[in-house]
Amino acid sequence: MSYNNVSIWASLPRTQRGQPIVLGVDPKGKKLLYAHSNSVIIRDIEDSAIADVYTEHSIQVNLAKYAPSGFYICSADQHGKVRIWDTINPEHILKAEYQPLGGPVRDLCWSPDSQRICVVGEGRGKFAHVFMMDTGASVKGELSGHTKAINSVDWKPTRPFRLATGSEDSKSAFFEGPPFSFKCTKGDHSKFVQSVRYSPNGERFASGGFDGKIFVYNGTSGDLEKELGGPAHKGGVYAVSWSPDSKQLLSASGDKTCKVWDIDSGDMVTEFPMGNELEDQQMSCIWVGNYLLSVSLSGFINYLDLDNPSKPKKIIKGHNKPITRLALSSDKNSLYTSGIDGTVTVWDVATGNNDRISGKGHGNSVSGLAIMGDCVYTAGIDDSVKAIDPVEKVYTGTSISLGSQPKMIAALDDGIVAVTTKEICVIQEDRKVCSLDIAWDGLCVSACNVDGQEIAVGGGDNLIHIYTFTSNTLTEKKTLQHLGPVTDVKYSPDNKYLVACDTNRKVVVYTLPSYEKFNKIEWGFHNARVNCVAWSPDSLMVASGALDTMIIIWSMKQPNKHIIIKNAHPQAQVTGISWLDSERVVSTGHDGIVKTWTVNF
């Protein structure tokens, strides 16, 4: 018995309006580095479906940066803690952990020899600190000169070494060292300075601020050389990044554009209009090799095209909020996932490529996903069921109003069934044909054909309610007792079994049509509430995912044996699970990540 994680479709950067995102990149220019919640995502730039995740921080991670050597990554979190960890081994062995600041770290940089690290942020009376990577010992000198939190820092990559910082006091500061000593401040900006970056050749550094201005300074003396544009952007500048040859600069702004600037002339070379919606604000950018990348407020990662500025070459979409549900298309080629923010993403199972469903959705958490024939249905906490055209990848405009908040939906032969906190309703031809009021909270639903259509509904009353559906009428057939609220139910593909899970950590299989317990057993190896269950296509195995971050594979042939996948989604509960075939399982979690596993009993 074995399992293996074969793919990770990573979450997007976690964004917040008005808060810049700091991106990192490896020295070879092949890996993109960014933070999402408690995790650090390492994503292949060329093939974005290849990713790795570091999950050892206990609270929100703000940023991570590669050492110039490429052997280590330093990540920093909301409490001012930094962790330095190995990039070579897949286990990412921890080298050191330090607490250089007493508050959130907003930026950090490595010295060119990978021996020292400078972190900046909010701190308690201290906004910056330089320390040795190996020992954590403070590097002599003092990084004073700012009166408010420091937002950005960068280390001059060539000798003589310098540090440049940008702060909420609307100033940039310039330091000589090490040991570092304050040389001067620059008051050219009139609002927060959000990004300072040195050119790769070390001859200049640039600063961008919320006043929409970008200034270029001499890298050795700190003298102002010029301002780019006048101002460079109509909105605040969130990030600047140099071209590899140090001749051009890429900027990202809240005015929903990115721009490329020629440093010698000070003129704009290219403008990238990114859209007109609020979520098209550009929160970060980075220029690595031939790739120009930016991050939108939506979390989308845009691959900018210098030859066609009007449209990105590629846009990486997905989720940057917890995933709530998943559904697999009947041909097993497409996977649909929904988020707590109301977004729905469709994934190509073979490649990991994805796209966001457009059109007017629910606007908030999606609580149900079901595929019936050639249409995909979603249910949201706006008390409605909506339809998606899977070909055009857009909401069709069809909306069926429900009497209360839906908890889950399931496909019927010729429609869907929805369970809400107050009713069970059947929808056919985009209209309600049957509704049954319930006095308990409906939590989950599944349907099958056994001597007619049967519907199983799990409730907050610790019962599974079995109904028959005939002549547009729901008739209760029997109830099955559990020791906790029933969180998910699924009929097997061969219509011979029903599996259910509950908050009491149990997974129970019932044999149809009698609904007797299979082998009179209950599977109970989870450590917390079980959220979801799924049948393999041959109805011989069950997969379950839980609040304890684990996935367990259960065998119908060998009921006393199971495969436990511990920390399937570290620090995040498993919220959805499905079988791609008899050997592959796909799972989703509150970490916004989709993972594929192979299992072999």
Summarize the structure.
This protein is an all-beta fold and 601 residues long. It comes from Petrolisthes manimaculis.
Topology:
Elements: E1 2-9, E2 24-25, E3 31-36, E4 39-44, E5 51-54, E6 61-66, E7 72-77, E8 82-86, E9 94-98, E10 105-110, E11 116-121, E12 128-132, E13 150-155, E14 162-167, E15 172-176, E16 181-186, E17 193-198, E18 204-209, E19 214-218, E20 224-228, E21 237-242, E22 248-253, E23 257-262, E24 268-273, E25 282-288, E26 291-296, E27 301-304, E28 314-316, E29 323-328, E30 334-339, E31 344-348, E32 354-356, E33 366-372, E34 375-380, E35 384-389, E36 394-401, E37 406-411, E38 416-420, E39 423-428, E40 431-437, E41 442-449, E42 453-459, E43 463-470, E44 473-481, E45 486-491, E46 497-502, E47 507-511, E48 516-517, E49 530-535, E50 541-546, E51 551-555, E52 562-565, E53 574-581, E54 584-589, E55 594-600
Antiparallel strand pairs: 1-55, 2-3, 3-4, 4-5, 6-7, 7-8, 8-9, 10-11, 11-12, 13-14, 14-15, 15-16, 17-18, 18-19, 19-20, 21-22, 22-23, 23-24, 25-26, 26-27, 27-28, 29-30, 30-31, 31-32, 33-34, 34-35, 35-36, 37-38, 38-39, 39-40, 41-42, 42-43, 43-44, 45-46, 46-47, 47-48, 49-50, 50-51, 51-52, 53-54, ...
